[in-house]
Amino acid sequence: MSSSGRYGSTSSVLLFSGFGTSGPGLVRQLQNLYRRPADRQLLDVAAEAVDRAVHRFGAENARHLPPDGIPLRGWLRNQAPITPAALRSSVVEGLLTHLMHLCLLRPGSRAAWSGPVIGLGHSLGLISAVVAALRPDGGQQQFLRDAHESMAMTALTLLRCQQAAGEPHGEPGLVRRYVQLSGARERPGPMVAVSGLAVDRLRDLLAEHLTEGGRPVELGLVNGPSDAVLCGSTSGLLELWFRHRTALAGAGVGYAFLRSTVPFHNSRLAPVLDHLNADRAWAGTSITSARLAAPVYATDFPRNLQRAGDLYADCLSQVICRPLDWSATVRSVMAEHRPSRAYDFGPGVAVRMFTRRCLEPQGDVLEYIPVRPVATA
Questions:
Q1: pLDDT above 70: residue 200
Q2: List of E strands, the chain
Q3: Does residue 190 contact residue 233 with C-beta atoms inside 8 Å?
Q4: Spelled out in words, what is the top-level CATH class assigned to the domain 172-259?
Q5: CATH of region 12-165+269-370
Q6: pLDDT attached to residue 81
Q7: What is the pLDDT of residues 258-309, one digit of tens each?
Q8: Contact 104, 1 (CB under 8 A)
Q9: pLDDT, tens digit, 9 for 90 and up, residues 238-249
Q10: Which of 9, 43, 127, 336 is most buried, most CB within 10 Å of its CB?
């Protein structure tokens, strides 16, 4: 594949995952990083930002937090246990993922990429892609200010979404019936990955479900020609499976509930944006499109966010309530920039896999370079 193009030299994609890859392993990695003075400073700044965000969210909304809250500093210092309930929370998962990205982007530790770059973030990873593309003016202190801002706004975004989403569990009778018929072990929730079924066929099934009076379900993410994620009420997703069981439980088709407590990329969460406008004023946000030194691509429909009128509003609405089309985004980046490699910030390999699948039909190939924390002694 040719690597020449608009820039006249080899360009690289900076690839960031969003959800689906958290867990005890990620917590241990962050605890190891906390032992390093340079990373500890960043992690303390992040913990302070989360504390401020939780305080703003208010004690009256504590029921939307994990039972033991979000004691991020205690987790980092290994002074507070991170419970299974916390790890099941999309709020905690999103925060830990973004925090790991910030550690990998910290001046002095970031990957030594060369040449032009393009930021590309899957779901919540879009916020990390924006941070990666900011002009490096101001050095370490400016990075810490940006990290504090992005952690505070990420925390408030996730908390507001969890509040709006409400109870993630489906009706007990539907859940029991689904487990009996499917044999699935994962707990049903408000997002489900459908694999091995053409997206156009899935759209048809979804349209039939809604026409026949099914509870609201939306096509939230298109990750490839036969990889998608549906989002909505848990009971609605269960109803859809019952109604179209022949197709959704057929040979080669996967219907796997994600470990998510929020139906991201769902229009029912749009009212959250009004709360976040007030949160932005409280936080005094300073990250704008004018500060982007490199292109960052939107994922609802392909466009360069360097030209965004309101970068925060655009990014947050993409994560919260707009559908994601990874295939169209990746194809647009390839056509416009012809990158030859992708620095994969993870965590996990799902987004790398989706990207590879999107490129295969055109015969395009990227060299994938994992970016992970260096092990501590």
A1: yes
A2: 12-16, 117-121, 191-195, 217-224, 227-232, 254-257, 324-325, 341-344, 367-370
A3: yes
A4: alpha beta
A5: 3.40.366.10
A6: 92
A7: 999 999 999 999 999 999 999 999 998 999 999 999 999 999 999 999 999 9
A8: no
A9: 999 999 999 999
A10: 127
User: What is the per-residue pLDDT for 7?
Assistant: 40
Residue 1 near residue 334, CB atoms below 8 Å: no
Domain ranges of the chain: 12-165+269-370, 172-259
- Dihedral of CA 299/228/346/2: which sign? negative
d(CA 28, CA 186): 24
- Contact in structure between 311 and 338 (CB atoms under 8 Å): no
Residues in the chain, overall count? 377
Q: What does the pLDDT look like over 320-345, one tens digit per residue?
A: 999 999 999 999 999 999 999 999 99
Rounded to 5°, the CA angle 25-30-33 comes to 130
Cα–Cα distance, 108 to 113 (Å, whole number): 13
Nearest to 91 by CA among 118, 67, 59: 67
Mean pLDDT of the chain: 92
Please report the pLDDT score of residue 193 as a whole number: 97
SS3 category, 67: coil
**Cα-based distances in Å from 232 to 240, 263, 271, 315:** 11, 6, 15, 21
Domain 12-165+269-370 and domain 172-259, same fold? Reply is no
Tell me phi and psi for residue 219, to 5 degrees: -85, 100
Per-residue tokens: 32: 């190891």
Whole-angstrom Cα distance, residue 98 to residue 149?
12
Q: Identify the DSSP state of 305.
A: G
With a cut of 80, say whether residue 192 has pLDDT above it. yes
Backbone phi, psi, residue 36, to 5°: -90, 130
Selection from 290, 345, 344, 353 nearest residue 326 by Cα: 353
AA identity, residue 342: A
Q: Cis omega before residue 323 (within 30°)?
A: no
The pTM score is 0.94
Pairing of strands 324-325, 217-224: parallel
Residue 99 near residue 116 (C-beta atoms within 8 A)? no
